[in-house]
Write a structure and sequence with these properties.
The chain is mainly beta and 577 residues long. The protein has 3 domains: 48-110; 125-136 and 143-473, YVTN repeat-like/Quinoprotein amine dehydrogenase (Methylamine Dehydrogenase, Chain H); 488-574, Immunoglobulin-like. The chain is built from 2 helices and 42 strands. The strands form 10 sheets. It has a 5-stranded antiparallel sheet with strand order 1-23-22-21-20, with no helix packed on it. A hairpin with a 2-residue loop joins strand 34 (459-464) and strand 35. Helix 1 (51-69) packs antiparallel against helix 2. The chain starts with 25 loop residues before the first strand and ends with a strand.
Length: 577
């Protein structure tokens, strides 16, 4: 998560952005006009994503002007077009000019495509193989209301995906489990114990019409499950998949550990593999031509069909890095910086650095999102000790706006229409920010925020402690609001604590309850009680030393109360005895 020691800026041409307080430099490469042409517009005025379309149109526009400016007295336009009078030449040229201008206008009016995630489903991390975390739905906007809540059976809920009305998530424990939950009712459809796994989970299941692909921490394989029943269909030994997510493209799956694997979805056969040379926690990115990875201090591209390396450039990222595939530009995190890269050869279009970032956001779901106008980038903590979300012009890298939060920790942003949605770690607040200027449009207090909200079927699904909330557009939602009545609630005091915890528990119905303490690696370090409790509220005092709990190292711990269908977690700061 931390930048490498001795971080040195790239030795390239530098152009000052004029926003020295937030960004030190932005590096740019120019646009090339073909020999013999004279561009009517400065190349820098043309969005890079449009240049492949716009340049030929501009040059055609110039060519169709030519007959107006030069024709001979015989009435023939240059090139020998007979039978056209001198009066007709300007008229035809004018028609051609008008047609070219209209075509050019239409080209610029569409401007950019960023491969938005499908609004119907959210089948993999960041919504699609390009990992844009963007959905073009301008009708969906805050304020939002809760229309349902589904329990995900986790003491610390992790990222999730969505397919045909079902949420697919992962829960920590010994072993880790894949879980399928009906998004409308909250009913658990099936669970799958991932063999050989334990501790915490930060893995997003990938889903097709037939399969759910998943793995876990300390596991050894990728598992393909029947989407309807959760039955194991095949497994492929590729190693542990904690914080490593699977991408799906057609009949193939792509995932990386210390190796990039291309796997046949039909039977789990490894079609090709590429040795990275280092072990890290990252997920690849794809477009129609290549697989891209940002790991082990390299950003590189592989041919999707056979894994041949296409190019490789230096990167400061070692792990938890992200790449987003735009139409003809890659956007990559770079240890406190964002760079725009040519997917054809790895040349850098621009790079924007943030010297005030102390800890970049190292997350399994990434730290960026891409819209038609901006690329968002999150910092976990800056030199002031707070989280920051930056929005850069996607064509130039110039800062458009930034939003500074009250505490540290910021999760992966999601962009839906004109709003950027993001949750903060320290205060557990979920925000909707205006995409245009970063100001707060709406916010909601949660019990506990986690990595990334997703958008599917016109609904924003947001993790909240041990549940997933379904948020609807207030103006358009016709669903009846379902009151949130969690099966189990818990509070703890004092916090911070040294040797004594006062626990208050409330239970909606009779259940077997296990109360225990976990460290941040997801390992159970102490068990307080395990018994069947009747409905109602009750209080307990837990004297750790008196019950044989060994002295705990000072730091953050997770106090968890779990039933067979629900769990709740409180963060507790232990000071030591």
């Amino acid at each position: 998560m931390l930048p490498p020691e001795g971080l040195v800026p790239l030795q390239t041409t530098v152009e000052e952005t004029g926003i020295s307080d937030s960004i030190s430099t932005t590096r740019r490469t120019g646009c090339i006009v073909p020999p013999g042409r004279r561009s009517l517009l400065p190349a820098s005025c043309i969005p890079r994503d449009c240049q492949n379309i716009a340049k030929p149109l501009i040059f055609s526009f110039i060519d169709c002007i030519q007959p107006v400016c030069t024709h001979d007295t015989t009435g023939r336009a240059p090139g020998g077009a007979d039978g056209i009078s001198e009066k007709e030449v300007p008229m035809i040229a004018c028609f051609r000019m008008t047609a070219a201008a209209v075509t050019l206008f239409l080209a610029f009016s569409t401007v950019v495509s960023v491969h938005p995630a499908a609004a119907q489903n959210w089948p993999m991390v960041n919504g699609a193989k390009e990992r844009t975390s963007y959905v073009d739905d301008r009708q969906f906007q805050p304020p939002l209301q809760v229309s349902g809540a589904a329990a995900m059976l986790s003491a610390n809920i992790n990222p999730f995906s969505y397919y045909d009305g079902v949420l697919y998530g992962a829960r920590q424990g010994d072993p880790n489990h894949a879980v399928a939950v009906d998004a409308a009712t909250g009913n658990v459809l099936w669970t799958f114990a991932i063999p050989g796994t334990n501790a915490s989970m930060n893995h997003v299941p990938a889903v097709t019409e037939e399969l759910v692909l998943c793995g876990g921490q300390h596991g050894t394989a990728l598992y393909a499950l029947d989407r309807q029943s959760g039955t194991e269909l095949w497994s492929t030994p590729i190693g542990a998949l904690y914080t490593r997510n699977v991408l799906i493209d057609g009949g193939r799956a792509y995932v990386m550990t210390d190796t990039v694997f291309c796997i046949d979805l039909a039977d789990g056969t490894i079609l090709w593999s590429y040795d990275i040379g280092t072990n890290g926690n990252s997920t690849p990115t794809m477009d129609e031509n290549a697989v891209y990875a940002n790991i082990g201090r390299r950003l590189f591209a592989l041919d999707k069909t056979d894994g041949t390396e296409l190019w490789s450039i230096e990167s400061y990222e070692r792990s938890y890095a992200q790449v987003i595939a735009g139409d003809d530009t890659l956007y990559a995190s770079n240890a406190g910086a964002v760079r725009a890269v040519d997917p054809a050869d790895g040349s850098i279009f621009w790079e924007t650095e943030f010297p005030e970032i102390k800890v970049p956001a190292g997350l399994a779901t990434g730290c960026m999102a891409l819209a038609p106008d901006i690329v968002c980038y999150t910092a976990w903590r800056d030199t002031a000790g707070v989280a920051v979300l930056y929005a850069l012009d996607r064509h130039t890298g110039v800062l458009s706006w930034k939003h500074v939060f009250a505490g540290e920790g910021l999760y992966t942003p999601l962009i839906v229409g004109e709003y950027v949605y993001v949750g903060d770690y320290e205060h557990d607040v979920f925000y909707a920010l205006h995409r245009s200027d970063g100001t707060t449009a709406w916010q909601m207090q949660l019990e506990q925020t986690t990595p990334q909200a997703i958008f599917a079927d016109g609904t924003l699904f947001v993790a909240d402690g041990t549940s997933v909330l379904a948020l609807k557009n207030t103006a358009s939602s016709v669903d009846q609001v379902v009151p949130r009545r969690p099966l189990l609630t818990m509070s703890v005091a004092p916090n911070p604590a040294s040797d004594q915890l006062h626990i208050r528990l409330s239970l909606q119905r009779r259940a077997h309850v296990r109360i225990s303490l976990y460290n941040l690696l997801g390992r159970e370090v102490a068990l307080f009680s395990e018994s069947v409790l009747d409905p109602g509220s009750r209080s307990f005092r837990w004297f750790l030393a008196a019950t044989g709990v060994p002295e705990l190292s000072p730091g953050m711990y997770l106090l968890t109360a779990r039933t067979a269908e629900y769990a709740v977690t409180n963060r507790v700061m232990m000071l030591g005895r």
